[in-house]
Write a structure and sequence with these properties.
Layout (H helix, E strand, L loop, with lengths): L13 E11 L7 E6 L22 E3 H10 L5 E6 L6 H13 L3 E6 L3 H7 L2 H7 L4 E4 L20 E4 L21 E6 L2 E6 L3 H14 L1
Parallel strand pairs: 2-4, 4-5, 5-6
Antiparallel strand pairs: 1-2, 1-3, 6-7, 8-9
Length: 215
């Protein structure tokens, strides 16, 4: 049994999972499985997932269990990894990405770090993860640059990188692949409101209030 000390200390066999949604259309192209991991070194003001920043135990899940669940989910075109900071659990997520791509699914990742920074670190685990990503949205959320007309993207500084040919056709679309209003999805799970997508602050406060009542 894995003993938790830090999300960054986990090996490839285990993930510290903050949340998962089997099917969503608010976290990337098409219908996707969305996986949020716990822990992020950044403290972006206005982050829509502040409860996922602390490097604490959320839910330890075997990596293979996540992989099997994703592959068994019908009618999805891929997985989106978000957080938290996905690169803080790169070893396990690289394995998830590798196996789901072998099953014919695409991989999209949101990272608060820039692609340039990630590459400069020359970390073996980060590079292995990067090699398995089709679509990367990078950069920290900057509240003063908030935008709501770029679907799936929170602030103007964040960039989209088409790392493989899987979504490369979107880069040349006349209207731009992300030139639509941001969307959110709300779910009521065990009396708690959960939100995914990038909501405005009033919706975030609704979710926080729901979490507090639940606690």
């Amino acid at each position: 049994m894995t003993t938790f000390t830090s999300s960054t200390a986990l090996d490839a066999t285990t993930l510290n999972v903050a949340a998962r949604v089997p099917v969503t259309e608010a976290e990337g192209p098409g219908r996707r499985y969305a996986l949020w991991v716990q822990g992020c070194p950044l403290r972006c003001k206005g982050c829509c997932n502040p409860h996922m920043l602390e490097d604490k135990l959320a839910s330890l899940v075997p990596t293979q269990e996540i992989i099997d669940e994703i592959i068994a989910t019908p009618d999805i075109e891929g997985i989106t990894m978000i957080g938290g900071e996905p690169f803080w659990q790169a070893k396990a997520l690289a394995e998830v990405a590798r196996q789901v791509r072998e099953a014919g699914l695409s991989v999209m990742v949101f990272s608060g770090m820039t692609l340039t920074y990630i590459k400069r670190q020359e970390r073996e685990d980060w590079n292995a993860f990067l090699e398995q990503i089709d679509l990367l949205v990078d950069g920290p959320y900057i509240q003063s640059q908030h935008v709501d007309d770029r679907r799936w993207i929170g602030s103007a500084n964040q960039k989209v990188h088409f790392l493989t040919d899987h979504y490369a056709h979107m880069a040349t679309e006349e209207q731009g692949w992300d030139k639509n209003s941001n969307t959110i999805e709300l779910r009521l799970v065990n009396g708690q409101v959960t939100i995914n997508g990038f909501p405005d602050e009033s919706i975030v406060e609704l979710s926080r209030a729901s979490i507090k009542r639940k606690e």
